[in-house]
């Protein structure tokens, strides 16, 4: 999965799909798709009829050759549908094969407790829930579990495709390990949470392969509609035969209608295009999600994603770049900016946090202050401590401190310095702008304030405005205070925010929105996110997150990227749109097929009905064959669309509807007129040769 | 005055009346106080007390059960009345009881609000059968349709509620607040325009000019009658032996005004007389023609507005109204053009007036033929058999669409809501969301029911017509050959299978087999949609309402209306294009 296959299919997949296409011809596979089963039965019937016709039993209306050609086209139609499904599955299988490689039989060192580490070698598959096992550097983790002792760096590339190792340690939010991943350093004791066959990897393989794929409610509803249409067409065709009998009696002639024509008409009318592509669309949707490195626990989750209209987005990583950055030095009480910058830089030299680094960098950029070589004997770094809530340096007799405004003021006053009114004003104005102020003092004199700013990601504002057009509300979740949160929310263009968020307040927010009838999506990673994840309609757990979070969610993001939610919504919508558009297209096709077949069929009864032959098809035979061939070829032609999904744009529903209606509705009416005519032009000379 | 202006009143008058009426009905559904309350409420409460009707509401299953039971009892009573009318009072002409198949067919027909008539009223039914049997059902079946709609609207309106109203209260309210007062007004208007209202029976009067019939009671055309000699000679001056001279006629006087009023108001359409509203005693003047046409459209139109009113989403009501109105006006325009133009035959000339009453004229007949088939009334004032081929196609197609272009009282709108759900489903998918209507999700359950509601008409028509089409005996029911004969056949089944009841003419449906098959078609297309739509209402009432946003499919937008029209037409066309090709289209191409 590291090298994602961006092309729709390669040669190997096509070969496999061709094989699978034939295997799927067995009745047990066909009956799963009622619309195609109708074609399947029709193909069998025409095959029998052609056999009878060859032995001389026929209706005297159509030739044996014609029946044979019809039955061949019908078989091809079935095969094309099988091919569409097989190729969609093939893409999933290719992804699954990668995963399976890491699912080799693994031996596990079972231990009895975290303290007694005498290992007993057992087969990984025999591990039971709550068993403990030891994994050392270079070994593969045998089962999904939770680290209960030790810490190790783990290579999870088999699942995530991400080659950088991750740290897994006992306790906290980074304790979950996945079977099939490899420990690179140190050793850990793992408690089994999922037995073999039920592990995360197994589930993933199942989902990706499509084996665990259940029909979603939308799919079932659509299938019901298609089945109902098919039933109507069976009745239409049966009634048509009866009407022809009556009409020929009224006119005192022999019934000139062949059963073969009726079968051809039935197959053309039945919504075979969408029927053939329906499961391919579903599988392809899943596959697209996998390509985005997201695993859905069910197909239903993907569709729910398309429905969500409230997104809870974490501020950090989604809306703002991971960390705050120093953006300005604001001196107070007559100190110079450079003086402040030097002091700030000195105080931050030992500060390895991204904020600290950004202060050093800003000072360097603004005043070209090189990182100063400090004589070690003159320097004493004061690290950040939970008690003082400040950090700094004692250097060459100067005591430089930086920290939150309140703490520094307190520190200065306690050491007989002067509190600064100007500083307080600056701090207040920075807070109101959504920034974080850090106050710097030297020898109990306040020098000024460092303005730490959240950096809004590029393009985020536009993205949110697109989402708003689509009717999706964005809500920023942040631990910041309400003032800071409001300022960032305004700058980023989110619709609302939840400040000083706690797991409880997240859960409450989700419930509130759901009570108003919204569908809520969120991402989360920590164990304390689990309740909110469980409550949300679409819950994406980060792969780096805890087992609890993963189990509470209905999707796992292997990249652990906070922006993934937006992509997931897109994929969900695209899946539904593809189904709707192809259904429209399929039904709209029927109009042209009627104009091809009806005049051809009734020409013996009412020759003047040939006026309806507006495409001027050459003969009744060529007309019926052209319609049938078109019906079969259109399936193949639409396979790429079914796999890729229809084009998706972030616009309002009304615009989307107009656009899709124009392309797939109007297009669906016009294209078969052209297609059938072209096929007729091509096959007419061939038919004349015969 | 240009001819097209004669068409306008038939569109404008009903719309103007329907808008305020719709608001009023909205109040009735919501059990709100309205201007009729002062008069009706005392009667209403007494009624509930007498019949022990409680305020307790029903879930959809109980509601459906009561609808079905009420209809079953209605059917049984009606069958017995028709079968044994000769033992019952009010039979001044001493008509015999109907045969079992005919009684069965007629009873089903009136209970299902179809009013298909395989008999002629003036020669078959007693006053008692007409008024206590049929007219009661004209009220009852109309009220059932409206009651079901009330329940459906409640289902769409409510959230997280399992009840959709009380059938008996709905029925009572519909009688007392709607049908009785409105039909009283319409009866008076009809009386004023000359429609008779009497229970005294036929009156015999002298003919202005005597006529003669031969031994087989067939009229002798161009007969010369010598009353003194009691001799009759035909147009070739040959003496006709054993001819009878007729000097008196019996005027078929019934309580027409009251019965015609409810026949139109309840979109029943079953006339007192065989000629229905083509007969001067049912529809004497252009004014009465307008009154009756308006009565047919009044409730189906008004209910669209009530829908918006009750849901507090007027735009949704208007969207459905506009959808219906577009199809309706297009049909009237097309029918008008076709019939003004008429069919021209060599040697004979233009036949625009063929089959139409002179006092009503082409505009009055053409609009009527559309109104009566757009709504599920089925009353006729002209012979469709004599219309141009395509002029006959349009009324047939309107029925085949499932009676949703205004349609029957109540049934038209709930039928249309079925199509709305189908359209919402496809359109909803196309905008990338799980389809929802009025904030309610459309899942597999709703879809199954919507499909049943929308497709029961095509199924009823196609199924019921297939069997007789295969039988040789059916030929004898047709009075025409060729494609026109097939049109007569197709029309009859479309009429029954769409619960319309109008007749093309020229088709004899009174055979045992046809009586039974047509009755079954009526049953399917009446009760399947009722159950399906009530089930949807029940399920939707239980749902929460999903919040709407710009990502939600707007169902009150022009795009949606357009798509809804296309879906209705496509399902209709796909189901009936082959049949229409063999009937009216082949008929049209012949000329």
UniProtKB/TrEMBL annotation, chain A:
ATP binds at residues 351, 355, 384-391, 402. Mg(2+) binds at residues 525, 529. Residues 108-209 form the P-type ATPase A domain. Its main location: membrane. The active site is at 314 (4-aspartylphosphate intermediate). It comes from the Bacteria. Pfam families: E1-E2_ATPase, Hydrolase. It is a multi-pass membrane protein. PANTHER family: POTASSIUM-TRANSPORTING ATPASE ATP-BINDING SUBUNIT (PTHR43743). Part of the high-affinity ATP-driven potassium transport (or Kdp) system, which catalyzes the hydrolysis of ATP coupled with the electrogenic transport of potassium into the cytoplasm. This subunit is responsible for energy coupling to the transport system and for the release of the potassium ions to the cytoplasm. Belongs to the cation transport ATPase (P-type) (TC 3.A.3) family. Type IA subfamily. This is Potassium-transporting ATPase ATP-binding subunit. It comes from Liquorilactobacillus ghanensis DSM 18630.
Automatic annotation (TrEMBL), chain B:
Keywords: Cell membrane, Ion transport, Membrane, Potassium, Potassium transport, Transmembrane, Transmembrane helix, Transport. It is a multi-pass membrane protein. It is found in: Cell membrane. GO terms for molecular function: P-type potassium transmembrane transporter activity; potassium ion binding. Pfam families: KdpA. One of its GO terms (cellular component) is plasma membrane. It comes from the Bacteria. The chain crosses the membrane at residues 7-26, 63-82, 132-153, 174-195, 293-311, 318-338, 404-429, 450-471, 513-538, 559-581. Belongs to the KdpA family. The system is composed of three essential subunits: KdpA, KdpB and KdpC. Part of the high-affinity ATP-driven potassium transport (or Kdp) system, which catalyzes the hydrolysis of ATP coupled with the electrogenic transport of potassium into the cytoplasm. This subunit binds the extracellular potassium ions and delivers the ions to the membrane domain of KdpB through an intramembrane tunnel. This is Potassium-transporting ATPase potassium-binding subunit. It comes from Liquorilactobacillus ghanensis DSM 18630.
């Amino acid at each position: 999965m590291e090298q994602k296959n961006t092309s729709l299919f390669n040669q190997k997949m096509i070969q496999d799909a061709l094989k699978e296409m034939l295997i799927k011809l067995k009745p047990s596979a066909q009956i799963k798709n009622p619309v195609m089963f109708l074609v399947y039965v029709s193909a069998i019937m025409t095959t029998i009829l052609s056999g009878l016709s060859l032995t001389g039993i026929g209706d005297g209306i159509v030739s044996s050759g014609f029946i044979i050609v019809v039955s061949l086209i019908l078989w091809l139609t079935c095969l094309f549908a099988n091919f569409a499904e097989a190729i969609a599955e093939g893409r999933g299988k290719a992804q699954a094969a990668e995963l399976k490689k890491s699912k080799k039989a693994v031996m596990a060192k079972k231990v009895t407790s975290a303290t007694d580490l005498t290992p007993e070698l057992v087969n990984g598959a025999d591990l039971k829930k709550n068993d403990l096992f030891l994994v050392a550097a270079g070994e593969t983790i045998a089962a999904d579990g939770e680290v209960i002792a030790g810490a190790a760096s783990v290579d999870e590339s088999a699942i995530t495709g991400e080659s950088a190792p991750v740290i897994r340690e006992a306790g906290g939010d980074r304790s979950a390990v996945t079977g099939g991943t490899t420990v690179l350093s140190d050793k850990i004791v793992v408690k089994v949470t999922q037995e073999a066959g039920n592990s995360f990897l197994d589930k993933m393989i199942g989902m990706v392969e499509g084996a665990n794929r259940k029909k979603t409610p939308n799919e079932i509803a659509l299938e019901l509609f298609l089945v109902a249409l098919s039933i109507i067409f069976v009745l239409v065709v049966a009634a048509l035969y009866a009407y022809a009998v009556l009409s020929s009696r009224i006119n005192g002639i022999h019934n000139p209608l062949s059963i073969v024509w009726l079968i051809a008409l039935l197959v053309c009318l039945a919504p075979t295009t969408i029927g053939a592509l329906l499961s391919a669309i579903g599988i392809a949707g899943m596959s697209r999600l996998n390509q985005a490195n997201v695993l859905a626990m069910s197909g239903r989750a993907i569709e729910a994603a398309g429905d969500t209209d409230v997104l809870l987005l974490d501020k950090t990583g989604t809306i703002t770049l991971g960390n705050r950055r120093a953006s300005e030095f604001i001196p107070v009480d007559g100190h110079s900016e450079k003086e402040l910058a030097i002091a700030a830089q000195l105080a931050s030299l030992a500060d390895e946090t991204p904020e600290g680094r950004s202060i050093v960098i800003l000072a360097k950029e603004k005043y070209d202050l090189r990182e100063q070589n400090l004589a070690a004997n003159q320097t004493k770094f004061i690290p950040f401590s939970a008690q003082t809530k400040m950090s700094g340096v004692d250097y060459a007799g100067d005591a430089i401190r930086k920290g939150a405004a309140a703490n520094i003021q307190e520190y200065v006053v306690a050491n007989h310095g002067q509190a600064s009114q100007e500083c307080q004003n600056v701090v207040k104005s920075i807070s109101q702008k959504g920034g974080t102020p850090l106050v710097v003092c030297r020898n109990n004199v306040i020098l000024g304030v460092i303005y730490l700013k959240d950096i809004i990601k590029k393009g985020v504002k536009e993205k949110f405005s697109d989402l708003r057009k689509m009717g999706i509300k964005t809500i920023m979740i942040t631990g910041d205070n309400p003032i800071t949160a409001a300022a960032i929310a305004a700058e980023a263009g989110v619709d609302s925010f939840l400040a000083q968020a706690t797991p409880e307040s997240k859960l409450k927010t989700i419930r509130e929105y759901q009570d108003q009838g919204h569908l809520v999506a969120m991402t989360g990673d920590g164990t304390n996110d689990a309740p909110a994840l469980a409550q949300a309609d679409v819950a994406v757990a980060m792969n780096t997150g805890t087992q609890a979070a993963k189990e509470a969610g209905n999707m796992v993001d292997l990249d652990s990227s906070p922006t993934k939610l937006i992509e997931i919504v897109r994929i969900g919508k695209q899946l539904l749109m593809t189904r709707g558009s192809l259904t429209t297209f399929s039904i709209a096709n029927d109009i042209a097929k009627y104009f091809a077949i009806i005049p051809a069929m009734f020409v013996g009864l009412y020759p003047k009905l040939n006026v309806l032959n507006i495409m001027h098809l050459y003969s009744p035979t060529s007309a019926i064959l052209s319609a049938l061939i078109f019906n079969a070829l259109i399936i193949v032609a639409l396979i790429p669309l079914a796999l890729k999904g229809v084009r998706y744009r972030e616009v309002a529903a009304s615009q989307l509807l107009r656009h899709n209606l124009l392309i797939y509705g109007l297009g669906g009416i016009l294209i078969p007129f052209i297609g059938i005519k072209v096929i007729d032009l091509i096959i007419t000379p061939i038919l004349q040769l015969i | 005055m240009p001819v097209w202006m004669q068409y306008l009143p038939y569109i404008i008058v009903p719309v103007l009346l329907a808008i305020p009426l719709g608001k009023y009905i909205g109040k009735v559904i919501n059990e709100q106080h309205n201007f009729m309350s002062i008069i009706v409420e005392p009667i209403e409460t007494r009624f509930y007390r007498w019949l022990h009707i409680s305020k307790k509401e029903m879930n959809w299953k109980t509601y459906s059960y009561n609808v079905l039971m009420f209809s079953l009892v209605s059917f049984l009573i009606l069958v017995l009345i028709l079968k044994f009318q000769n033992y019952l009072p009010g039979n001044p002409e001493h008509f015999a009881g109907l045969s079992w198949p005919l009684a069965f067919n007629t009873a089903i027909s009136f209970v299902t609000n179809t009013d298909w008539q395989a008999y002629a009223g003036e020669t078959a039914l007693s006053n008692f059968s007409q008024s206590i049997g049929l007219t009661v059902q004209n009220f009852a079946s109309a009220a059932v349709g409206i009651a079901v709609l009330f329940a459906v609207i409640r289902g769409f309106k409510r959230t997280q509620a399992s009840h959709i109203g009380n059938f008996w209260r709905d029925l009572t309210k519909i009688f007392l607040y709607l049908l009785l007062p409105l039909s009283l007004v319409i009866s008076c208007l009809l009386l004023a325009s000359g429609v008779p209202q009497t229970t005294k029976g036929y009156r015999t009067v002298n003919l202005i000019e005597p006529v003669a019939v031969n031994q087989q009671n067939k009229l002798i055309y161009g007969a010369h009658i010598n009353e003194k000699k009691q001799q009759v000679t035909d147009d070739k001056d040959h003496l006709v032996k054993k001819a009878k001279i007729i000097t008196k006629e019996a005027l078929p006087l019934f309580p027409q005004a009251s019965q015609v009023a409810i026949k139109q108001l309840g979109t029943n359409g079953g006339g007192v007389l065989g000629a229905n509203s083509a007969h001067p005693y049912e529809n004497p003047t252009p004014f009465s023609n307008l009154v009756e046409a308006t009565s047919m459209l009044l409730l189906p139109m008004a209910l669209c507005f009530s829908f918006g009113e009750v849901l507090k989403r007027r735009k949704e009501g208007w969207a459905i109204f506009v959808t219906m109105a577009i199809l309706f006006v297009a049909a009237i325009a097309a029918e008008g053009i076709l019939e003004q133009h008429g069919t021209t035959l060599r040697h004979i000339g233009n036949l625009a007036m063929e089959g139409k009453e002179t006092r009503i004229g082409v505009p009055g007949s053409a609009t009527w033929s559309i109104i009566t088939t757009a709504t599920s009334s089925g009353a006729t004032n002209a012979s469709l058999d004599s219309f141009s081929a395509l002029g006959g196609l349009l009324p047939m197609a309107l029925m085949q669409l499932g009676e949703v272009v205004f349609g029957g009282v109540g049934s038209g709108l709930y039928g249309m809501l079925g199509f709305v759900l189908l359209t919402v489903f496809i359109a909803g998918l196309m905008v990338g969301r799980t389809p929802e209507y009025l904030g309610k999700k459309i899942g597999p359950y709703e879809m199954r029911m919507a499909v049943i509601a929308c497709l029961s008409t095509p199924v009823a028509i196609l199924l019921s017509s297939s069997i007789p089409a295969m039988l040789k005996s059916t030929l004898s029911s047709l009075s025409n050959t060729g494609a026109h004969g097939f049109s007569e056949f197709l029309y009859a089944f479309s009429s029954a299978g769409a619960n319309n009841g109008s007749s093309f003419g020229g088709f004899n449906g009174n055979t045992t087999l046809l009586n039974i098959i047509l009755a079954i078609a009526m049953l399917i297309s009446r009760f399947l949609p009722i159950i399906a739509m009530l089930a949807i209402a029940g399920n939707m009432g239980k749902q929460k309402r999903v919040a709407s946003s710009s990502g939600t499919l707007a169902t009150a937008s022009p795009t949606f209306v357009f798509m809804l029209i296309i879906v209705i037409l496509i399902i209709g066309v796909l189901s009936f294009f082959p049949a229409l090709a063999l009937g009216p289209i082949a008929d049209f191409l012949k000329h």
